Each structure stands twice: as C-alpha cells, then as structure tokens.
Amino acid sequence: KIANLTMFDLLPFNQQAQAETREFLQKIVDILLDYIELCNDRHEHVLEYHSPQKLKELFNMAIPHDGVTLQHLITDCASVLKYGVKTGSPHFMNQLSCGLDIIAMAGEWLTATANCNMFTYEVSPIFIIMEHQVLKRMRQIIGFHHGDSIMAPGGTISNLYAVIVARYKAYPEYKVKGPSALPGELVIFTNDQGHYSMKMAAMVCGFGTSNCVYIPSDKVGRIIPAELERLILEQKAKGKYPIMVNATAGTTVLGAFDPINEIADICAKYGIWLHVDAAWGGGLLLSKTHRHKLHGVERANSVTWNPHKLMGTTLQCSTFHVRQNGLLEECNRMTAEYLFMTDKFYDTRYDTGDHVIQCGRHNDIFKLWLQWRARGESGFEARVDRLMELAQYQVKKIKEMPDKFYLLMEPEFVNVCFWYIPERFRHMPHSLEKEEELARLCPIIKERMMKAGTLMVGYQRDGKVPNFFRSIISQDAITEKDIDFMLNEFDRLGRD
Ligand code: ABU
C-alpha cells in the first residue's frame, strides 16, 4: 500500500499518515529482524565480498535530484545489509568490538528515536542522570572513590582526554596561554605494544609524535618497568618534561596487561600522571576471577574503558574516568553562555557540555544501561568468564594440532595469536625463517577467507614478529563448535 509513496506522504509532512508511517517503519523493522536471524544462522556467510569497483556497480549510491519512493528506500535498506559484514555472526572473530547484543541494539533503536543531544540536562534529563549513575558505578568498580567521568566517541578520544587532563594538571596555565605556559617540550610514555592513540594524542596536543616515547615490552607484550624508569630519566636529562605514562590493560594485538602497580610506583616517584588504557581489558574488572590482571588500576589518575569491546555493547560506547573531582570540568570548561548558562533554574552541574571537548554528544548511555539492567552484574561477570574459558578452549585445540598450528604465546586474554602451517612446511622445525614463510601466507589466507566469506579473523604483526593471525573471542554467540569451525576453516583455506 505504501510502495509508491514518498517520505513527504508520511509524518510529519502528512499529519493523517499514522498508518502509512507505521507500515513503512514496520517493513524496516522486518528487514532488521530478518538480518538478526541471518547473523545467528551458522549456515550463513559472514560476508559477501566484492571489490570496491564491483560494489559501486552493484549498488547505486547516487543522490537523486528528487527523492526516491518508500519502496526504493526499503530495498536500499535490505541491500545495504546484504553487502555488509555480519559482525554479529559467531564466525566473526576479527575485531575487539563484535557481536550483536539484542538488548543493547534495542537501546540504540530507542536512542535514535529519542534523538536527544547529551550536552545539557535541559535536553536529556533522564539520560544525563542515567549517565551519572552508570559512570559512578564504573568508577566504583575501578576503585575510584571520587572523581568524574565522561563518554567519548571511541577509545582514541578517551585516551586523548587523558593527555589533555594530565597536561592541565601539570600546567594549568596552558589552557589560556598555550605553549608559552610550558617550561619546554612535554613527553608521554606508552608500551611499544600500546594503541596508536597515544601517538595521535601527542600529535593532536602539539607535543609531536617523537614526544610519545615507546617503552620496550617483554616477550609477552608487557611494559618492562625498569625500562620505563630509564626512559623517564633519559628524557629528563634531555631537558624534556614527562607528564604522563599510559599503562595498557589488554593490548590490541597480543592482549597483554601492563604491571600497573609497578608502573604506579614509578609515576608516584617522579610525580607523573598515570593513565590506564583499559579500553579493551576494562571488562575484566567485572570478573572476580580475572580482575587481578588490572591490579593497581585504582592507583591510576585516569582510566579508559570501552563497553563496546569486552562487554559487547553496540558501537559505540567508550568511557573515560578521572580520579580527582572537578578536574575534567576545570580543564575543558569554556562557559559557552548560549548553551551552558549558569543562571538556569536547575542544578547546572548536570550540564555535561563543559566537561568535554565536543559540543553535541551522542547518547551512548541508554544501550549500556539497558544491557546492564538485563544482565545484572552477575550476567556480565558470567559473560567475561565464559569468553576467557572459550579462549582457553581454542588454545587447547591448537595445542592438540601442533603440525597444523603454532601458538605465538600463551594468551593472557581472549586474543589468541597463531600461525597456520600448511602441509609443505610441516616437516620444518620452528625457526625465524619458518615464521617469515608463515607470515607471508597470512595475507593469502586472509584473501581466501574474505572471498569465501565463511569466516573473519584478522592478521597483524607486532613490531618484533612478522604477520600472524589474531582471533578475538568477544561475543555471546560463540561456542566451542564455532572455534572448531574456525580451525577447520583455516585448514581448508590454508591448504597449498
Ligand atoms: N581501537 C582498537 C580496535 C582494534 C581492533 O578491533 O582490532
């Protein structure tokens, strides 16, 4: 009935079009529901791969002069999902953020419908209070008794906040006077296995990327504390000013956890801000069994923790927490009087706009709150424990097939790093030369994988070791059978 109508026949243009509007949206919801079922169907492919050129040919994305019909839009929506990657498939083990949590997704639907900007209590009263409550609970879980938090568009921006606040704490006059308030060049330190967001922050903050100093890591990817201290002294001797050390809880590739307590001792000795990038590993704080990996996190000055990773919240959901009360606002307050008037009739401390470097802010809290309500704390703990158990299952299976797979190291987390060994290399004892050969095969196997569309697992290198595969177990849909499937698929795709 609605096929030949256009958007101008629906609400709000046509105030009599309640039934037509409902019918259009119901059709879109049906497409989404079909898609959710496909994501959970193990016979379905993870993706239907096409080259960029072919995709342009298959899908006409041109913006028309006059708008298309509702039927056209419905077809567009179905096609977009057809050509997308099903990150909710149990055979998608490619990224730290994956899975399709039905409750969080429902939360995002509601958020899109409510369409409230998170900059003021005036516009988002219920969501702002929710954000306060949930972030306070996260600070308690970290072990911060005071403090302040904010949600940011991704872990890189959360980590950028850490550098901005650390700089403000050390040199508050920088906010007004800029570089003239500084005694010299500022430096920050991070694990040589850490996320590139620290280097990005050094660039964005004007320190220069060479002032993001990499601390050598040990063979499992953890910062060597003695090396950190040596580098701090070296930088000081060069006349530079160390302002922040970033410890990583769950490195992106290897899933390593830096020794936070030992790093905190060094930071305390030299009066340096300690940030913990727990974007990936923060979810382990919810598990009594595994939270010890972040031992000492309560001593950090700030923490990044992304629920859209280990907690499976739909993208995006990143949180940044500061231990000291008021600092975030002092640092970022611009007192834009058109929006954050201090003479409003309500308690304007609930206007979050002066805590952040954005103005408008997406509502990332509702989906997290709804998901946490649905699972309870015990549900999240069970999820995290199960993911860790599944990663160990994968390790066990890999060890049972030493001719076909080589484990890079015993994983600390749900990142399992390995090589597939095709038949022609099976007679060779493991060596650096063999690693180079196996590394060369990674892009070839990945290409076959993408074109087959049956599985997605990423490969990378870590600076010391050439290409290897890294599978990520971070979604509720995965079972032991899917891990068996993954390893069998490697054997099928990796054959000479
Ligand atoms: N922001 C780090 C995510 C990288 C990954 O999913 O592999």
UniProtKB/TrEMBL annotation:
One GO BP annotation of this record: gamma-aminobutyric acid biosynthetic process
Q: Which PROSITE patterns match?
A: DDC_GAD_HDC_YDC
Q: Which GO terms describe its molecular function?
A: glutamate decarboxylase activity; pyridoxal phosphate binding
Q: Which cofactors must be present for this protein to function?
A: pyridoxal 5'-phosphate
Reading the lineage from the top rank, the first entry is Eukaryota
Q: Name any GO cellular component annotation.
A: cytoplasm
Keywords on record: Decarboxylase, Lyase, Pyridoxal phosphate
CDD domains referenced in this protein's UniProt entry, alphabetically: DOPA_deC_like
> Where, per the database record, does this protein carry N6-(pyridoxal phosphate)lysine?
K309
What InterPro entries does this protein's entry cite?
PyrdxlP-dep_de-COase, PyrdxlP-dep_Trfase, PyrdxlP-dep_Trfase_major, Pyridoxal-P_BS
Does the record's keyword annotation contain Electron transport?
no
Q: Which family does it belong to?
A: Belongs to the group II decarboxylase family.
Q: How does it assemble?
A: Homodimer.
PANTHER family in alphabetical order = GLUTAMATE DECARBOXYLASE, GLUTAMATE DECARBOXYLASE-RELATED
Q: What is this protein called?
A: Glutamate decarboxylase
